[in-house]
Amino acid sequence: MQDPTTLIPEDTTPLFTNDTIVFGLLMIALGLIFYTSSLKTGFWSKFYKIVPALFMAYFIPAIFTSMGLIAPDWTTVTETGEAIEGSSNLYYMSSRYLLPAALVLMTLSIDLKAVFNLGPKALVMFGAGTTGIILGGPIAVLLIGSISPETVGGEGADAVWRGLSTLAGSWIGGGANQTAMLEIWGYNQELFGQMVFVDIFVANVWMAIILLGIGKSLRIDKWLRSDTSAIENLKARVTAFSQSVARNPSSTDLMVLAAISFGAVGISHVFSGYLSDFFSDFVSGLEPGLMQNSLTFLNSKFFWMISIATLFGVFLSFTKMRSYEGAGASKIGGIFIYILVVSIGMKMDLTRILDNPGLIAVGAVWMLIHASLLILTAKLIRAPYFFLAVGSQANVGGAASAPVVAAAFHPSLATVGVLLAVVGYAVGTLGAVLCTVLMQMAAGG
Question: In angstroms, rounded to a whole number, what is the distance separating the alpha carbons of residues 233 and 23?
């Protein structure tokens, strides 16, 4: 007879479960990061020349999660053996409230003409990233399958290639595309959790590497022999404008900025609800098949929220409101981005890498191929590291991560990240279907 204690799930309750306490802990970490990174001499000055502050904002929460201090979600087991699921709402808050507010504030002074003058290299690098995901999946299946066939095996709904299709959807498009893949290929939803973990872990490790690279972007650009003139021109024009309207912000200025940013958040949430409902009815009315599943991203409230907030900011950049850049609009937006980054960082538990090493290996090889193709393409077309980083995150990270990485180079560049992420939503399902067919062939399914 089976020991009943083996049926009791593991208690994963962190030390702090109250979001108010967790948020306070994360803000203390951010305060220390900002303070130490502002020091001009000593150890910290040398440290931040190697490790960007944004990376530390991402990595410290991951350490907290790995130590069991905080967690994005957890299971509490009562004395009677009842399992109670719990979760933090900090990522939801920062991605739904602070991210759209940051996008409005960062695009308030955008020079749209200068953005378009960046040229086609951004799209080329995005395409290289997508191609790397499409080809990386089947190659990873072949390589890991030759070493450990059971890792990429399985029959019917349990076939691993079906589960990996959800990674392809997520890494080319986003959550909506991932869900579409789950439905198209009928993967066993009881096993879906392990794919979600691989998605979060591998994608977040790759984002950490991207952030580390930002601190060495000048050296990387020199190695790539990149032409960064268009990017530097955009940054210079935005900086010049900021300096021309700079002022000591009054309470009125700050309150107007709060009204602009969070008013836009409210508007984007209202219209994203209407638009997602409308397109949900439209998409569900289409004939079942590839076309219907390719348009599922139109059902996403998050997609419409990010798009509307960005358009709102772009619209305001043609009005007198753009002068509020001088009152610190992009600086406030940058603070919101940092809060988003710490909430993303707390989703990564470094101790779980050995939970399923086989699938982690598949994801790691997959991401390595994606990265290699990006580097090769950047070298061939002399694309700046900025385009490599944002082109990758527009695929792998989507609308939540691409503007974060873009803004790390300069607040005025956040819009580029959003635009590429929108392209990722559009091509995500089609690219993931092609990738899945190749993975099925590689797995012999």
Answer: 38
